[in-house]
Amino acid sequence: MAELVADYVLKRLRDWGVERIYGYPGDGINAFLGALDRAERSGGPPFIQARHEESAAFMACGHAKFAGPDRIGVCMATSGPGAVHLLNGLYDAKLDHAPVLAIIGQQKRASLGSHYQQEIDLQTLFADVSEFVETCMVPAQARHLVDRAIRIALDRRGVSAIVFPNDVAEEKAVESPPHKHGFVYSAVGYRRPRVVPRDDDVQHAAEILNEGEKVAILIGQGARGAASEVEMVAELLGAGVAKALLGKDVLPDHLPYVTGSIGLLGTIPSHDMIEGCDTLLMIGTTFPYAEFLPKEGKARCVEINIDASLIGIRYASDVLLIGDAGETLRALVPHLIRKTDRAWRQTIEENVASWWKIVEERSHQDADPMNPQRVAWELSQVLPDDAIITADSGSSTNWYARDVKLKQGNLASLSGTLATMGPGVPYAIAAKFAHPERPVICFVGDGAFQMLGMNEMLTVNRYMDRWRDKRLVFCVFNNQDLNQVTWEQRVIEGDPKYPATQWLPDFEYARYAELCGLRGIYCDSGDAMRGAWEEALSADRPVVLEVKTDPEVPPLPPHITLEQARKMAMAMRSDPERTGVMEKALRGKLVEFLRT
Ligand SMILES: Cc1ncc(C[n+]2csc(CCOP(=O)(O)OP(=O)(O)O)c2C)c(N)n1
Ligand SMILES: [Mg+2]
Fold it and tell me: How many Å lie between the centroid of ligand 1 and the Cα of residue 510?
């Protein structure tokens, strides 16, 4: 049989080093399904069937985040409904700057514009989410569309989408178009260029950093790969390092001057460092909440970002260094003078040490039946060095951000910018495919698990034989509540918890896991939590670790403003959980005051 466009596209993806395609079938991609079958005998890429196209897109995004620098995640869906389902996962990739290629089916060319079944204007639908979107109308287009889509997604760290009407995908491939006017010949390949700022700007940045007496560093995911340079600069400047959510795994939490997360999900030492600094060095971050940065004019600021569109957008920085983090810091180091007065750094280290004691004490406070912070704390005690951690969006994101103590070698991510519910489980599955020899741990709320995660346990069952090392743990926080929002209602709106919107149906997740052929472990006691983690991390198959946690333990921001306290008091007038909430909020805060 002659090679079809669909076969050719898969071959081109192989040439690009694409490892697998996450997706879900439909008649818009029928030609690809046959081609995937044939490709299995010639080296793939293999098709991994998710339970929902949104999950498939999250998996592609997870692949891009965990597989290594400049590796693209690929997802595939059918026309109409399949395409629409992909969108949220693709937006997650767009907003977190993860390179993803979406291959989407379309109805036959002749039917387009006729209000045909499953006909959606895909070019328009994907225009906003994509850096590059194009419809393949004739076979000779396929080669350059694949090449450009992947190169653009990698270079711009975003989403590319190619739409294939099914009848084009099943035509005979044209690998090398005729050498005639109107035809083009594209190439495979992408290597990220070195991007370094100008010498005089580096010099200017060094002057500002040398003049600072209290330097704070804030890193984001753009600092990934530059850990040793960040450490060197922090040492020279006598600075502490705070981490935006997506930068959590850039530096280990065991370093004494790493103050941890920042912002609403932040730590006290990060908050105090930013409040007290006179100079700020921001590296590869677009941390959104500018109110957690110094007041304008209060600190001088040097910022490094590889992307000019993402620099100078949160603080009126004095020097904007457009460049790769590692390269730029290496250029900066020879100009930096080691600070001889280490008092600022010492204060930061003391605050960090005292913070970890607060975290430990808060996590051990009684709750009914279990304090969710204990789940994170005990994980930190047994976390394998090579573990990959994913988190969903919810109250457990707080515990992930603040309480989990990452080690050198851990990888970790979540939906940092879209902050969508749903990606925790699919990210973990993609991480396991990308690194089958490493343990993978997912933090997910019961709401998110019910929304999308539960279904994917069937996917885990289907593919777990492919992973030699079976350690894959889905830690489900069963609090029967959309807890993060419940707390936002209380603290931001001053409204009591409204069970009609917030309460979740109870469900036995550990038993469900067994039904899915996985291991189910249930834990509702803080003292049993370490044992539960150890059991989960040594199981002979993937595990759902259901933790029954107390929704009344507040995911407190580092400092409550007067306004927040006022709103909270208002909410408490008629909150159904008023007694427990007041008591537990107060106890959590007391630990902090007793320490400081
Ligand atoms: C797709 C989507 N829908 C709604 C939200 C708003 N939201 C943010 S956190 C949250 C609660 C999540 O509940 P759950 O997964 O049970 O975690 P919990 O906060 O209870 O720990 C909601 C509804 C969102 N971020 N994404
Ligand atoms: Mg919940």
Answer: 21
